[in-house]
Every structure is written in C-alpha cells, then in structure tokens.
Amino acid sequence: MINNNFCWMATWKVTDRCNLHCAYCDPSIMKRANEAEAINRFEALDRIATYKPRILNISGGEPSLLKELPGLLSRAKAVWNPYIRVVHNGTNPQKLAEAFPCMDRLVISADGPGEVNAATRGISGDAVLEKIAALVDSPNFDTVPEIAVNTVVTEKNIDTLKSFAAQIESVSPNIALALLPVMPLDGELSILRDREAGYKRFINIYAGIKAAHGNVTHNLDCVMRHKNLRKIQCYNQYFTIKFSPRGEPFTCGAGIVSQLRRSDRAYKKVFKKGGLRKLLTMAVKSVKEKMGKADFTCRNICNCESWLDMTLLGKETEYAPVVLRGFRGRLSEDDYAELERFVKENINPQFDAGRFRAMAEGGPE
Q: pTM of the entire structure?
C-alpha cells in the first residue's frame, strides 16, 4: 500500500476542458474547450507511474481534446502496462483512433436516443450512435477497442432505455450498455428518491432489456446498499486513487491539502453546501489513518468503483466480472495475499479471496 491505498485502480482526469456542457458536470471546475492549460502531461504520467495502477481510467473534461493522448497511453503501456479505459463524450470518437492500439476499452457517454441525450449532454443520442456505427464499420482502423456505452438513468430517460438498448444492439451486439444511477440519489432527476419503489420500477424495466439484449449491466444495486446517504461506508476508496491533470494524487481518504490541490478551482467546493462538513470528515480520517486505523467513512455517495464494495462484502453484482477482468495477469501472489489480509481484518471476515481471484483471472482480457 502507498499512503494507506492499494492504488489498484486510478482515474486520471487528463484535462478540465470539454467541448460539451453536460448537466452532470461541475461548472466551477470545467473549462471551455479552447481554454489554455499549461500542463506537461508526460511529467504528470511519470508521477502516476510511481503508483503503477493496474487499471487506468482516462477521463476529463474530454480526453480527445489532447493531441498528446496517443503518446501518453503508449508510454503508460510501455512502462507498466495497465488496463486502459478511456471515457469519451461521443462527439467524435474517430479523433481517438491513433490511440486505439493502446486502449482496452472505449467508454462513450450517452443517455438515450435523439433529444433525450441532447437535453443532458448537448448532442443528439442518434448522432452519437451514428458516429459509433461509422467507427465499427470503418475499414480504416486496424484496431478498435472494446466499446461500451455508459448511460445515466434518470426520470427523464428511464422510459426510453429499452428502445435505446435496441438502437445500440442494431449498431453492434458487441457494444456493451452499462446503466448507472444519477447523482445525487435524492435529487430531482433520480429514480431512487423513493428508494425501494424506484429500484423496483427500474428492475422491472431492466429485466425486459436484459431479456432482449444480453450485453447490458447495471450498478444501481451497488448504491442501494447505503441506508444513510449523508454518512456512508465506502470500502473501494482504499483501492482507488485519482489524479489531477498535473498528476497530483487525491483520494477520498487523502489529506485536506491533497484534496484542495486537485484542480485550479477546487477551493470553490469548500464553500458549497456541505463543503465544510466534508473537510471535517477528511480531517478526522487523516488523524485516524496516521494512527494506523482504516476509516471507511465518506460523505459522498458516488458510482466510482462501487461494484468493488459489493464484491468485498461478498455480495453478487453484474458489474464485478466486467471490471475485474482488467486485473488479469496484473496482480501478484503478494497482491492477493495483502488483499485477503486487509479485507478480512477491516471489512469482511468471511471474504472469499478465491472467488475474487477467479473473477479477476478467469475472464477474457
């Protein structure tokens, strides 16, 4: 562990710039697509390389805005060979083509057909699928990574999910569809505001989608386990780490200084509703961890790697096998042994390390 973190999964927010203005993004941090960023990302990558995360998620902002992205991913593969997922907003996946040989998975965000996606992300969902179809059918690319569509489920699109899944399958049955809950869970857009009733409604719709289109998963079950949304127990924070565009690490369990330096405008978060309470939570966590105590308290409920919490608790979830295969061949005997010790001592005494390993090593890469 490095500073009380396994650092097995990392998300590198390579830029704060974006060419869309999605409803889910924080406008206090996001920058315009043409705004200058004086960042040496190869130096940032060298800092990330010291942690050697086995799974590296590339997010933003919008990664396709970076001309140096192919070189960055190529260096990451050459230096420590992580499983690389790139998250893209669907405006032009062809711009990422030069980096395709270094990508294991291309994740495209789209919330529904036509104007449904336009309402939340500013681009027609049909246009996004047309761009994906052009990518899949093009003879110009020697390598195209596995493609997945991430869809945030809301009150605005839940009744269109079945038709959207059919559209995706018509492009290619090999394209995975992942359904995620909108944050916050108790917000106006959330179908989980009434918790059990909303979840039951979703599962009824999901069952029909799953029966018709097998290549679909969801992680709403992962957030349903939380009863108190204001103070949750998040276990994956000891296995995940995030990096700012400059390669500065920050995690839910990190010190206050690390949290505040994660972007040029992050200080504004302190003065938003609940910001001071979050700072207090981080301060308490920092003290406990200096004393060698694991503290899983968090005031933010998020999608992140919530599937891992379910796995560590011994609960089944569809998401786990999909993500765990990214670890294939990347975890050592010592890694598995340390995982088992930590989880059994701090999270779940009945943790089945063999089951975890079977999912990580058994699936196709």
A: 0.90
